[in-house]
Amino acid sequence: MPQLTDWLPTTRKEMDLRGWDVADIILFSGDAYVDHPSFGAAVIGRLLEAEGLRICIVPQPDWHGDFRDFKKLGRPRLFFGISAGAMDSMVNKYTANRRLRSEDAYSPDGRHDMRPDFPTIVYTKILKEVFPDVPVVLGSIEASLRRVTHYDYWNESLRPCILKESGADLIVYGMGEMPMIELCHTLEDKLLHHLDHRFATTEEFRSVLLKYPVRQTVAMLDEAEIPHGICPDDIILHSHEDCLANRKHYAENFRHIEEESNKLHPQRLLQMTGDKYVVVNPPFPPMTTEQIDHSFDLPYTRLPHPKYKNKRIPAYEMIKFSVNMHRGCFGGCAFCTISAHQGKFIMSRSKESILREVKQVVKMEGFKGYLSDLGGPSANMYMMHGKDLTICGRCKRPSCISPAVCPNLQADHQPLLEVYKAVDALPEVKKSFIGSGVRYDLLLHPYKDERLRKAAMEYTRELIVNHVSGRLKVAPEHTSDHVLHYMRKPSFQLFHEFKRIFDRINREAGLNQQIIPYFISSHPGCTEEDMAELAAETRELDFKLEQVQDFTPTPMTVSTEAWYSGFHPYTLEPVFSAKTPEEKLRQRMFFFWYKPEERSNIIRELRRMGRQDLISRLYPEGDSFAGSKPSYKAERPAQGGRRPQGRGQRQGDEKPWGERGRQAAPKRHHASSVPYDQQSRKAEGHSPRKGSGHPQDARRKGQQPSSAPRQHGGSRRPGK
Questions:
Q1: Strand blocks (E) in 367-478
Q2: What is the tens place of the pLDDT at every residue in 355-391?
């Protein structure tokens, strides 16, 4: 039975039990404190504890009244750290329609009143009021995605770097293990000299970091303070003020932000904001297997802090019996924040580390033999990497599989199969499920290497037969190829193919499992007609969609920048987005074609579009909804109408792996479908001089880092 001292201290009493007079670092978190490797505050706390530092956590402090929660542990030697939580606080709390979610997944009993909106800003301002001379360091996804000018959907405004609004001293962006270790070592070695009586002041903190800047951090500096000055290799973004005045310039910034977040040799980014520069230092290289093993092997109790007694923390219940095998995702989905936060390079744990964690899970109270997930951001990217890292070192593409699978990608499913089999061989494990979502384009790709092709075939069968809990969740996101190009997702033709394979393997194995697809409405580039065709396509596949999702614009995604600015960040061409509640509703209603109350509205809209062909596909004669209502005979599609690809094929007609060849490329409605390294940069034809705030102001050369609910900006859904 764990003792109170097995958790990091949260109160003065717990500090006393450890014999501490003072903490080195005090972490404030918007989440409940769960001592588990899927919760960021616990990870950073345990990691720094392993470095010999005294770490305390104040979870969900009361921000009202006399601020006693902010005062109770006193002043730390190094700094205060602030995390809004494992999810963006606004996405965690509100739906795409800005309505309160049913519960806050990271709070005890799902309570909504345990944290403010934008806790990063609220907590910082309180700490700066109570301890004005103590440095404050921001981390987690909320701060990470607000490190430069960003669009805030919740306030419908363009906002500057969160350092300016909060008054904090530094941001650690991305996955924080490596920069936090370096930051603490720098402060101890260069400032405090490991002396207990020495305390860092804000002025000293800033002074040391000017001399010894830490990678993967963000600071606001005067031009004269920028380490080494403005260098030729720096990328100078359009200023915050320029972004306010010119939405196209704002969109243009994002291309550089995304590219530098996903390069092996990234460059420094600078952005003028008011009279200061936001300086974004390049990220660390991706963590090695040894480094990520170390992070996961720390002595977590894997339990909520005893203060919560028997209260339910929904996010913890979701991942309690799951294991995260890797970080990073090279899918590069346009609506997903992982690209800007974790990066595209896969950082995989060793099989031995994974098995050690599984052996801990099986001993937990309540474990009944079933692992809910062996996964990662995308379940089947474990141990995948570039064959030739020199090619990766020159690459700026944010995705290794869109618009096509990179020939340099070593997409080997064999290591993953070995982990599955090793886990399933443990006597305590009855079944291990895959709940993270899979990339079926990686399974269906016609690999030239026979070994990779066979491994993909074996993985597909192993997944479907042994690791599906009755329903396999996948995320095609849409059926329209031109919308899918905006999303950086593969053609829906591949979903048809995967479903045929799924159905065939189920028949052969005597199973009766379902495949559950997820879709997004109102994504940039998506029209009502696209949603109507999605409805017809999914109806013919016999899907009645129950869980649907409107696109939610969250900071630092391609889709958000296109949605707000009206321009695609890579081509600067105009992009349509449904924005008003009425426009969104007209798109969303097509998900519910099967509801009698929606029928008349849908038919009215389809007639307005001139798409009687879709009426006959959605409501054919003799269907269960027809009854005494008028029927509609099939008509020739209106000009521009698209019949669904893959219809008319019998189940089991799919070609064997490797015999399909590349699918015909869909019609390109948008220049963003051109491979990134081939796109013309017609909007970049001039290079203003330094000080103009233009991204081409400096010369550019060639270029980094839980199984908690997924963020596509926060969506709790599988498969990117």
A1: 370-371, 373-375, 385-386, 409-410, 431-432, 471-477
A2: 999 999 999 999 999 999 999 999 999 999 999 999 9
